[in-house]
Amino acid sequence: GDSVTQMEGPVTLSEEAFLTINCTYTATGYPSLFWYVQYPGEGLQLLLKATKADDKGSNKGFEATYRKETTSFHLEKGSVQVSDSAVYFCALLSGGSYIPTFGRGTSLIVHP
Amino acid sequence: EAGVTQSPTHLIKTRGQQATLRCSPISGHTSVYWYQQALGLGLQFLLWYDEGEERNRGNFPPRFSGRQFPNYSSELNVNALELEDSALYLCASSETGYSGYTFGSGTRLTVV
To answer: What local confidence, expressed as pLDDT, does residue A66 receive?
Structure first.
């Protein structure tokens, strides 16, 4: 079955540091890939997405590239801010399915 | 445009009681999804409703049930509450799954 594996958190960084949160997946066919962000006390928000191999999703300074050869969709940001502190979820949606599979989430803590 | 709205924000119930949670999707979205987010367990898929019908359910006992109304709003019912039902319950709506979900802020259910 489909699965998403994210790096364990928490990831703790200083402001302006470079961020990478790893995400790898197992799926049949060609899934769509997503990153969601959950700020404290809130629901999840769609951050970015990519629907085919080599696509790059980007939003608010965050980027992720759909790598079919390595089945990965790592999230990156060049310079994090304290306001980026949140839990980040990687997810996939397989073709023909309507129910996405989520990773367990990675907590990011950014210190001033 | 109003987002996905959930009510109540917080709910405290006694073990054995019933809980009812409500969700209004974004206007024009016919699909509603329910997820349970228990501490340390990530997002667990509960139920999917579309056009008033239950389309899929996750690996949860039958005491978790729900329905979708003609206006596409939805209700999640949890009967015979157990302590381990304490969690954040998230509702999401989607126009098509590939466009990504929009989540509500959730209902925090505490069973004492």
So the answer is: 97
The pLDDT of residue A96? 76
Q: Which residues of chain B have pLDDT under 50?
A: none
Alpha carbon A104 to its chain's center: 11
Of A32, A41, A43, the CB nearest to B98: A32
* Chain B nearest C-alpha distance from A105 (Å): 6
User: Which of A99, A101, A104, A107 would you mutate first to test chain B, the one with the most B CBs within 10 A?
Assistant: A99
Query: d(Cα A67, Cα B56) in Å, to the nearest integer?
Result: 30
Half-sphere exposure of A22 (CA within 13 A, CB side): 7
| HEC secondary structure over A27-50 | CCCCCEEEEEEECCCCCEEEEEEE
For residue A104, list chain B residues with Cβ-Cβ distance below 8 A.
41-42
Q: Tell me which residue has tokens 């016919």.
A: B30
Cis peptide leading into B70, omega within 30 of 0?
no
Q: What is the mean pLDDT of residues A14-39?
A: 94
Are A86 and A100 in contact by the 8 Å Cβ rule? The answer is no
Q: How high does pLDDT run on average in chain A?
A: 93
More confident residue, A39 or B39: A39
Which residue from A minimizes the CA distance to B94?
A: A98
Report CB contact under 8 Å: A104, B41.
yes
In this structure, the number of other CB atoms found within 10 A of the CB of residue B7 comes to 12
Q: Of the candidates A51, A98, A105, which has its C-beta nearest B42's C-beta?
A: A105
